[in-house]
Each structure stands twice: as C-alpha cells, then as structure tokens.
Design goal:
The complex is a heterodimer of chains A (480) and B (485). With 480 residues, chain A is of the alpha/beta class. Chain A has a domain of 245 residues: Amidase signature (AS) domain (Amidase signature (AS) enzymes), CATH 3.90.1300.10. Chain A is built from 15 helices and eleven strands. Chain A has an eleven-stranded mixed β-sheet, sandwiched between helices. Chain A is globular and about 65 Å long. Chain B is an alpha+beta fold and 485 residues long. The longest helix of chain B is centred in the middle third of the chain and has 20 residues. In chain B, 41% of the residues are buried. Classes of the chains: A alpha/beta (480), B alpha+beta (485). Bound molecules: zinc ion.
Amino acid sequence: MAGLTDLTAEQAIAALRAREISSVDLTEAHLARAEADDWHAFLAVDRDGALARAREIDAMPERPPLAGVPIGIKDALSTRDLVTTSGSKILEGFRPVYTATCVDRLERAGAVVIGKTNMDEFAMGSSTENSAYGPTLNPWDRTRVPGGSSGGSAACVAARQVPWSLGSDTGGSIRQPAALCGIVGVKPTYGAISRYGLIAFASSLDQVGPFARTVRDASLLLGHMVGRDPMDATSLDWPDPIAVPDAERLDGVRVGVVEELMGEGVDPGVRDAVEAALRTVEDLGGTLVPVHLPHSRYALSTYYLIAPAEASANLARFDGIRYGHRTDHAENLLETYENTRAEGFGPEVKRRIMLGTFALSSGYYDAYYGQAQRVRTLISRDFEEVFSQVDVVASPTSPTVAFPLGARTADPLAMYLSDICTIPVSLAGLPSASIPCGVSDGMPVGLQLAGPALSENRLLATAHALETALAFDTRPPGLA
Amino acid sequence: MSDARWEAVIGIEIHAQLLTRTKMFCGCALSFGDDPNVHTCPVCLAHPGALPVTNREAVRLAIVAGHALGCEIAERSVFSRKNYFYPDLPKAYQISQYDEPVCLGGTFRYLTEDGERTVGITRAHLEEDAAKLIHTGGDGRRAGAESSVVDFNRGGTPLLEIVTEPDLRSGAEAAAFLKQLRQTLVQLGVTDGNMEQGSMRADANISVRPAGREAFGTKTELKNMNSFTFLERGITAEIARQIAVLEDGGTITQETLHYEPTPGEITSLRSKEEAHDYRYFPEPDLVPVVPDRAWVEEIRASLPELPIDRRERWMRDLGLTFEDAEVLSETAELAGYFEAVAAVAPPKSAANWVRGELRAQLRERGEEPWESEVTPAALGEIIAMAEAREISMPNAKAVLAEVVATGAAPREVVEAKGLGAISDETELIAIVDRLLAENAAQAQQLRDGRDKVVGFFVGQAMRATQGRADPARVGELVRERALGG
Ligand SMILES: [Zn+2]
C-alpha cells in the first residue's frame, strides 16, 4: 500500500470499511509522524488515547461514518482530560473537564483524535510565531511560517501527520494557513458549527472549520459538525446536509472577481497564479464577473477594533483564580490579577487586550467599537449586493506566499496585512474556502472562494470542480 | 420627613432572584444552603470555551413581572457585557441588559390608607447574579479577613433588576411601595422575595432639594438594606444626614453608601471618582431576546388578578376595610382561602373569622388556613350557623376548635356535643326566672337601675346552658322578667 499516511480520509475510510486496513495501523502510522514532528505542528500527542479509541472502533461490528480515521485538533478546542492551552502559557498544563461540541460530534462519528496542534496564542496572529510554545515550521520550507493562527493544524495535514484536522478562523486563521501550506481550508458560515468549547478570541467572528488535502475530505468533515447545538445560542439549524461534491463542471456558475483584492498589495506571483486559476473557471463553463466591495478597504481597521474589543472581555476570565497559571508574586488581589496576566500572556495578546479595552472605554465606544459595527454592516451589504450578481466571489487567500520566520514579528501592522483578503469575508460571516491553486517562488498559493450565508454546498462544489481541474499536488517537495 | 423646608427624592433599584429551576445561562439548579460549589458547570465557572444560553423561563418571568408593572415588553432586548474584575465574577464580566432592557416604562400602583399611589417604573432588565464570597478570619467582612473563598452555587442565578423613577418622598413611602411590589412579585411566582436570604435586595438613590424646587440635588446610592425596616430606617437616616450637611452649608458628594443596620450607621463604599468604567458592549455569545408577540399576550392573558386589584375589589364590592384587605391579601393562598369562605358566608364575617378566630386557633398549631383541616366550606358553615343564631358565638368557636383538631363536619360536632342553641323560649324563660329567684340581691340591684348586673345573669345563664343560649336574647329576657316589662 502506498503509505497509510498518503491516503486521503475518504480513501482511508473506504479501506477501513473494506477491512483492508485497521484503525490501529492507520493511527499508529500517523502517530509515528506526529511524534517525529519535524515542524512542531503538535503541542501534544495523545498516543494512548488515540490507540485505545482506534482499537474500540476496530472492534465495532459496523464502523461509524468516520471509521477510525485520525484527526488533529487545534489547541483552541477544549478536549476533556487532554491538555488544552490555546497556545498560551496562561493555560500551561490545563486539562479541561469537557469536550467541545464539534470535537465530540466527530469522535462520536468515529474520528480518532491523535493530538492538539500548535497555534498563535489565543488565535492572535498569522504565522503561529505567537505560540508560547515556539513556532510551527512550514512543511514546504522549514525556514518559513505555516501561516496562522491555525498553523499547526495546516502543517500537520500538509506534512501527512493526519489526513485532516480542525482549525478555527476569526479573520483568516483557517484559510490563510491552508493557502500557505498548500492544502484546503474551509471556514463555514458563522453559526454553522457550534463554538461551545472553542476558546474564544472574538466571539462574533470565531468559527471552527476543517483542513484537508481535498475539498471532498473537508466537506465530509464539515458535514459531521454543522447544525444547532443547544449549548451555543449563535449556532444555526442547518438547512440541507453538506454534500460531498463530485461535479467537475462549472456550467452556469458566475464567479465574481473582487477587484479590490487583486491589485495593490498582492504579490505578482500570487496574482499570476490566481488569475491562471480563474481562467480555469471559464474552461469549466463558468463565467467571470468583475465585482466590487467598496468598503473592503476599511475591513482591516474595522476588524482590529471589533476583534480586540471582544477579546479584551473574552480573555478577562484568565485571572489566576480558578484554573491556569497563577502568579507566585502577589500580596493582594490586584497583584494576583496583574502579575498572573503579565506573566501568562504574550506581547501580541497584551497588545490586543489594550486595543480592545481602549476601544470600549467610556467616551470612545461610539467612535471606535460603535463605528466599527456600523462599517461591518456596510461590508455585509457590499457582499449582499455582489451576491445579487454572482454565485461565489474569488480572490487570493493571502497577498503573499509563506514568508520567512521572523520576517514580520517586529512589525505588527505588516503581520495584520496578511489577512487583508480574508477579513472582509469574516466580518460578513460568510462561508469561504481556500484551495491551493498554484506555486509562486516555490511556495503554494491559495485561491479564496466565498459565497452567501449557508451556501456551503455550492461553494464546495465550485471549489471541488476547480481543484479537480487544477490538479495541484499537495505533497510538499522533498517530504519524507 | 420631619423638615418641611426640604423634600427628599428617592428612587429604588430592586434585584429579585427569579424562581426558575435553573440558572440564567446554564443548566445548573438554583439552590440555597447546599454545600459550596456543587451547582456548577463549565459555563457558570467560566471555563475556557464555555458559552451562555438564555434561560427561557427567566425571560417568561421577566415578562410576567413586566405586565404586573405596567411595562411595555420590548420587541427586542439585548444582553451586554459589564466588565470588571472580581473573584465572585468568574468571566470578569456580568451578562446584563444595558441599553435595551426587556421591560420599559411602567407604573406600579400600590395602596395606602389614603388611597392608591403610583411609582413610575423606568425599566426592568435581566441579568445574572454574582457568586458568593466567604471571608474567613476577622469579622466576616472583606477588610481584615485572613482569606476569602468563593461559592459559585449562587453565581449565574437569574435576576430581574427593577428601576423606579425618583417618585418616592420618604423612607416610609419607599417601604410601603417595596412591600407591595414584593407581594406582587411573590404572588405571581416571579421570586420568593426572601430578603433575609438575599433573594430580593433593594438599593435606594437618595437626594434632597429645597421644598418647591424642580431641580434634583446630588444623589447618593444606599446599599445593603435587607428588610423593609432597614430600608425605611436607612433612607430616613440618609435623608437626615443630607439635610444636616446642606444646612451646615456643605455639599453632597455623589457616592455609594453602605447602611449598617445594627448601629444604624452609613459608611462610604466608593465615590464617583472611583466609579468603574464597565465598558459595556453587546454580548456576542447571545442572540437578542425577541419574544414571540403571541407568547407575550398569552402570558398577559394568563396573569392572575394582581394583589392591588383584588384588594380594591374587596373594599369596593365586599365592603372590607383597608386593613382587612391588606391582611387577607398577604399571600395568594390566604387570599384564595378567604375568597372561598366569602363565597359561602357574608364577606365581612368571613374576613373577621379568617383574620381573627381561625388564625388565632391555627397559630398555636403552626398551621396556615389553607393547609388546615378547616375547609372554606366548613368555616362558612360555622359562620352561617352563628349568624343564624343556631349556635352561640362561644359555641361557634368551640365548634371551630373541634374542626381544627379533627376535621369533623361542623354540624356533626354541634349534634354530637349538643351545642345547638336553645330555640325554645319557654325553656330560657324558666332558666331566667329561676336565676332571678336564686339571686335575689342581684335581682334587686337590677330593679334599682343598675343595668350592669344584667351581665351577671347572662353569665349565669350561659353556664347553666353550657353556652347554648343566645347571650343577647338572655339579656333581654332578664330585663323583661326582672323589671316586669
Ligand atoms: Zn452552571
């Protein structure tokens, strides 16, 4: 067999169902790669738990839908008894008492969690360099970042440590690392997947989503997570089951090309690859329509008011009183708070807490948070307008390919610009996918597709047809 | 208020714990007095990733209260985060409604002996209660404690905060208002209203101004008044303090004050300068509360009669006094009991019996009328027999005592014990004549014009008949027979 770790999840499930392979063997093969971990994709590998679960599934007379295929879980997702840090020192060694709804649903469906993946601390970052536990390296080039914040979840799929994984996306944290690591990443409609158990960064933007090496795998995983959860008031009743797409044509599909996201600030090599991929749309029978998102140029500043504001409150619970890190240097309550948080949080987290606290302060609320919410509405309207003309919109996922480690750590603004293409979609709460569409400078380029709310099936069908035609090789060069 | 040159202006903020089964945003049971931290979960302990979900029953109770307060029920209300760090607040923000509350602009009517009064209701909103801090060492207060621990059982309990307009003018008025507000909320099942256990708490905003002036003075907020008495005393003391300061030429500082009931002292908690910036913003983890209008109307339609409406009806239609109505409407159960008795007996007599003899007899047994052996029908029968003079008043009470003890049917008690009134006039006349003959000295006094002696003969007659005589009729007969009328 051509290597258990080269199988897509779909192929693995077929082989498991046919009893050609066992979940234990499949899990063992992936565990071995996850433990070797040349890219620091994992923060924790749960060998015993994973193998125990694999054995259980192998013993079942009938395999559950996901059949015992291993998965990596972003460390932002709460997993019972399995250390969950959200990439932060303030949660070092923290073992949750409950499992996130989405993970629970996958485990019930037969997924085998093999470990927790690295991430920017509390999902704040675009390179995974903000992890308190050191950066993850890009499997295509170990001197470069994998993107972020779900860098570990992207790298582990690209590096064949798992066939698929879960990430979370607030302003691009699934799509951008998927693009930078040459794999598929899907951020569903806001509310599609329960956030219960997702350690919050910015509640009104956070969404869980899958990483995989094929759109079909991503769709399959997504299908087992969507739907209303009584534990998350913002979760949605899901209208139609997520279909695993198989159409290879795009006849009649209108693809809007977002002019504002194709010009200035986008590397020429990225633009070339995206434009080439868009020509494929026409080859497949679809039409290209230039469209405009006039308010998208305010998206970044809007995002950097709303997300930090929500984060400033979301992260206030880390106070050293009930769990997580508590300072040894405090004489009183105030010092307990101050020193616990000073010691526990990294610089980017502190920066955003300060930004958010300021944006919500009395006298500034209207000018900052209030104004940002109004602009957010305008951005949503831009999309509504565009979707009266087209079925999906397309743009680069990231304006650049993966950049070298350290290149942007000294310049937060340059780092923030990494998400310039993904943030407008996040603010509008729309479903979006990134698929690899070409190579520039030896590194993969991602194509971002987005559709109207709840249009996952059409979005994924479009992504699948393009993916098939583009026939991108997701295997990083020289991967052992 | 004693001083006619000053007018006090008082508004009240009431926090009432709602009588839901579970907490405001999680499935943990509400409790009181259980072991610490047994009613907790990832949500109310603010574990990473846990999310709140609005308790629909809490929304329903808020709507019930809103209707009772004459409020408009908002089409859409929104939860916000109120941010501050404290160990009793695990998320470091309280989820509370801020600029879009569930109930808006109402009027609460309450009764005084001088008639109906009203207090404007600014708003009522839903929020969650904080956990309970327990300070060990020292005197139980935070200052001087050796350590503090947190009991999260209370954390997340649903609260309805009701804010009144500054329509009250004295501590007594505030207490009367709060008493009837509490009664209304309790009878509607909104809260248990237990002030000692803190399930209902009141803060007062107090200012004074020269009589006749429109503009408000600087206000202070007085906290920690856990009984009507303390509320009245605390407000009265604070009004007096403010007047004294102003008369001394001083100014009032806007601050939060703590009323310590035992010495009756008022101490400052924090001034405006130390006030928090709570950085309110809409809670992104929750969707707005948009109650279905049909549901809102259904709740309104199923509302029972409000205590004040019942009291006014009793006074108007049943001829009850203000005090009768006040006492009998104390609880929904008592009111219901009284109405059942009044349905089968003259209402005024029913009121007297329920308030008086029945409660007096039951008090010794520690029973309430509606839990006792005395059904409204039985009491009604006793009253009817007494009113028809089929039994004397003393025997009516004796019959009641028997019913209280055994639950026997009143008429059977009368028969079995031979307590029926003597209806044969000749029998009574014979007794009176015999008594007049046997007590010649007293009979002479009577003839000499000392009418008080009638009482002596009535007493003798009652004893002779074992209470079966009608005392009033006996008195008449004594006069007739002695004076030869
Ligand atoms: Zn709870």
